[in-house]
Amino acid sequence: MKVKTILVSQPEPKTESSPYFELADKQKIKVDFRPFIHVEGLEAADIRKQKIDLTDFSAVIFTSRHAIDHFFRIAEEMRFQVPDDLKYFCQSEAIAFYLQKYIVYRKRKIYVGKRTFDDLMKLLKKHKSEVFLLPSSDVLMPNVPKQLDIAKIKWIRGILFKTVHSDLSDLDEVSYDVLVFFSPSGVQSLFANFPEFKQNETRIATFGDTTLKAASELGLKVEIQAPTKKSPSMTMALEDYIRSANR
């Protein structure tokens, strides 16, 4: 079956140079975007219940832009003046650059990983004297605390926001040739919104092992996977599949 329409379960890219737009133009297909999940911030009172005292930490670990937004939001709500000498450890360059929204980048101590948390761990191990705060959502990849504990890093997790299913009722039905998912929560949101969803001839694309597992456990047949050696990005995996399907 040929692919003519794709629904990506993420917000539409803000840059015109997105590889998704290039894919749509090159393959002459329609690509829509719709977040299946979103985050909601917890209140300062919820943070205090976790017995989190922001003055206890000399460094912060950021694995997402959401974590940055909610860390500074909570700091403001708690009237905590973020110290100039606080150290920032960011999983990727994109996350590190996002810090410029809140701090004078060139005047702070910022350590940047290449892309994955494994990369960031190499930096964290060199700073074991620090006491780290890990701002996160209520959903956290299990390998993150495991690696921190194995390395004997002094850290505390602060749940500052939660991941919730978006209301997709206005979609009526999800009738696309390909549905693209990037997290287990995204897959779960599909069935939370459409309990009677039947895959039929819809192709499912998943990014990452945990997303693949969640889709499989919910009875979905996954035909497009990323990252792989051949297709390190989702757009590359989609293009490879479309080329074969649309011959």
Describe what you observe in this structure:
Helices cover 33% and strands 23% of the residues. The protein is built from 9 helices and 12 strands. Strand 10 (178-181), helix 7 (184-193) and strand 11 form a beta-alpha-beta unit. A 5-stranded parallel sheet has the order 2-1-10-11-12, sandwiched between helices. A 5-stranded parallel sheet has the order 6-5-4-7-8. The radius of gyration is 20 Å and the shape is elongated. With 247 residues, it is an alpha/beta fold. It has helices at 19-27, 44-49, 65-77, 93-98, 117-124, 143-150, 184-193, 209-217, 234-245; strands spanning 5-8, 30-33, 37-41, 59-62, 87-90, 109-112, 131-136, 154-159, 161-165, 178-181, 203-207, 222-226. Among the domains are: 40-163, 3-Layer(aba) Sandwich (Rossmann fold), CATH 3.40.50.10090; 173-179 and 192-227, no CATH class. The model has no long low-confidence stretch (mean pLDDT 94). The longest helix has 13 residues, at 65-77.
